[in-house]
Design brief:
The complex is a heterodimer of chains A (452) and B (128). Chain A is built from twelve helices and no strands. Chain A has 452 residues and is an all-alpha fold. In chain B, helix 2 packs antiparallel against helix 3. Chain B has one domain. The model of chain B has no long low-confidence stretch (mean pLDDT 81). In chain B, 60% of the residues lie in helices and 0% in strands. Chain B has 128 residues and is an all-alpha fold. Chain B is flat and about 65 Å long. Chain B starts with 7 loop residues before the first helix and ends in a 22-residue tail after the last helix. The chains are: A mainly alpha (452), B mainly alpha (128). At the A-B interface, helix 5, helix 6, helix 8 and helix 12 of A face helix 2, helix 3 and helix 4 of B.
């Protein structure tokens, strides 16, 4: 294997296929349980609730037509029955969406994870082993990021055609396969770039890290400086979402502002519904309660916990003389469980990286479940400006989380095969900076879009 | 998140509790997240009839956001302890962010409704 560092045979990449199989198996099992076994009965219950509601609605209309009920009388017995049936139908629909969307999301994510690590691993396992030295002057630079970026550029250029063709294929309309050409080429270049990047990084043992030789980062690792400059650009991207949101939000008369006499003097009532109106208890839509805030709340905790798990992974990797932790918390954890969580230094790093991967995946699943609820309640990307900015801002953040997960799969793979130690833990550290930034962005997005 | 000398509060916490600063930072982040959700969830201060006004909710969300941002940036991203160039790099876009938030976000209370027509050609959402 080329690159600088440990001598590793390309056959180690075959293990990536095991990872892919593991992801696929997990996805199929989760889909079978959530998307079929639990969603099936929930769907039947939903259909029953729909029938019940239509029946109650017909009874009420017939009663109004016969003059037994007065239209608009909200105390009428049949009207109350109809409203009760409607609420039951909505609850049954959301319950069905919980299972169906989570099952589907886990399956799709598993397929993407499996494809990503599986194809990359397969390509690398087929490459011929190349001898490499341990020359202290050899650097750890790589052209792969440029290839990867070129692939992204091609994919973005071809995305409209790619998206159209996929939609046409899924809906059974006439599809022009040629329209996908640029997008698919972009995807191929991305995969080749990423696979080569992994191939170069896997043997990296910490020697040959490039050091900046001039101001302002003189003496610092170039990769670390690079990730900070990247984060700087990311701050600007999220700032555009916030400034757009503030610009629109200051022009809206929301129910919250209306209740607090903060709308314009000529306002006659609140004029727009935000996502928080659907989610917050006491919000304008009347649908918000503890349960509607729960996914966003759990997601916030999931990201914070995942930030901590990656810190533990890094600390463990960097420990000079590692031993199983012994403190006032671990005293309450039974020894057999402690041995599973903290088996040895190498596998502890892997376990905590894997825990980070699981928590990030949970974030994506809950995010899509929550979106499906909002869409079912009529809050879509095209509903209003509030819908547009909500889905674009939270969607961009979700995309960052998802990209982070794809990178994390490789980190777990490296932790499981070559392993991280005090010399080569920079990979976790630099990725951790990105992951913490994603957490930080959520710290701002959550109150701005969900609570306020 | 690099190696650095453990001093001050970090050393005190480690010596007296056996847990490092990352653990305590994690607990602080968890606590303040609960606090901000509670601030929105409860219309009145629990156990009293005192209404939580919108301005107070804003203040809580902003203050908690600053505390959590500091916790993540300073300790998890290790801006506290790393060479100052990283802190300066992180702060560099703040000027532009403030300009953007003031210049775009807060200087036009009409929102996009107040944009000239050439800015929003055939864009129905502009008029909601």
């Amino acid at each position: 294997m080329s690159g600088h560092g440990a001598d590793i045979e390309n056959s180690v990449w075959v293990r990536a296929l095991l990872f892919a199989g593991g992801f696929l198996t997990f996805g199929i099992i989760a889909f079978s349980i959530l998307g079929i076994a639990l969603a099936g009965p929930a769907h039947d219950e939903y259909m029953d609730a729909v029938d019940l509601y239509h029946h109650a609605e017909d009874e009420y209309k017939e009663s109004v037509a016969a003059g037994h009920s007065i239209e608009g009388d909200h105390y009428d017995e049949l009207y109350l029955e109809m409203e009760k049936a409607h609420h039951h139908e909505v609850d049954a629909h959301l319950s069905y969406l919980n299972w169906k969307v989570s099952g589907n999301t886990i399956l799709v994510m598993s397929i993407i994870f499996a494809s990503f690590i599986g194809i990359g691993g397969l390509i690398n396992s087929l490459r011929a082993d190349v001898e490499h030295g341990d020359d202290e002057h050899e650097h750890h630079g790589s052209a792969s990021p440029i290839v990867f970026t070129f692939g992204i550029m091609l994919f973005m250029i071809g995305f409209p055609g790619f998206s159209n063709t996929i939609t046409e294929l899924l809906t059974g309309t006439d599809a022009v396969i040629g329209e996908m050409l640029i997008g698919v080429t972009g995807l191929l270049v991305i995969i080749i770039g990423v696979a080569n990047w992994w191939w170069e990084d896997l043997p990296f043992n910490g020697h040959g890290e490039q050091i900046a030789t001039s101001a302002p980062f003189e003496g610092e690792h170039i990769r670390k400086a690079g990730i900070w400059v990247f984060i700087m650009s990311e701050i600007m991207i999220f700032a555009t979402f916030f400034s757009s949101y503030l610009r629109m939000r200051t022009g809206w008369c929301t129910k919250w502002a209306w209740d607090n006499d903060m709308c314009a003097a000529d306002a006659t009532g609140y004029d727009i519904m935000t996502a928080s109106d659907y989610l917050r208890p006491g919000g304008a839509s009347g649908t918000g309660d503890f349960w509607t805030m729960l996914p966003g709340g759990i997601n916030t905790f999931a990201l914070i916990i995942s930030s901590y798990t990656i810190v533990i992974a890094l600390k463990t990797a960097k420990a000079h003389d590692w031993s199983r932790p012994d403190n006032f918390i671990t005293k309450f954890i039974p020894q057999p469980i402690m041995k599973i969580i903290f088996p040895d230094q190498k596998r502890t790093v892997r376990n905590f990286l894997f825990a980070t991967l699981l928590l990030g995946s949970l974030f994506i699943v809950l995010k899509l479940v929550e979106w499906s609820h909002l869409v079912a309640e009529g809050f879509t990307v095209s509903t209003s400006q509030a819908g547009s900015i909500f889905y674009i801002a939270t969607g961009a953040h979700g995309l960052h989380v998802f990209i982070g997960l794809l990178i994390m799969i490789y980190l777990v793979f490296k932790a499981d095969t070559v392993g991280y130690d005090k010399d080569n833990a920079q990979g976790i550290e630099y990725f951790g900076l990105y992951w913490h930034f994603v957490d930080l962005a959520w710290v701002l997005i959550f109150p701005a879009f969900y609570l306020y | 998140m690099g190696d650095h000398e453990v001093i001050g509060l970090e050393k005190w916490l480690k010596d007296n509790t056996g847990m490092d600063i990352y653990f305590w930072n994690f607990l602080v982040l968890m606590f303040f997240t609960l606090f901000e959700i509670g601030a929105v969830f409860f219309d009145t201060i629990p156990g009293t009839d005192i209404k939580v006004p919108l301005m107070m909710v804003w203040a809580i969300l902003i203050v908690v956001g600053i505390i959590k941002g500091y916790g993540i940036g300073a300790y998890f991203m290790h801006l506290k302890g790393d060479p100052s160039i990283y802190f300066r790099t992180a702060m560099f876009p703040v000027l532009f962010v403030l300009l953007m938030i003031f210049g775009i976000g807060l200087s036009n209370p009409d929102g996009v409704d107040g944009l000239p027509a050439w800015c929003t050609p055939n864009w129905d959402y502009a008029t909601r």
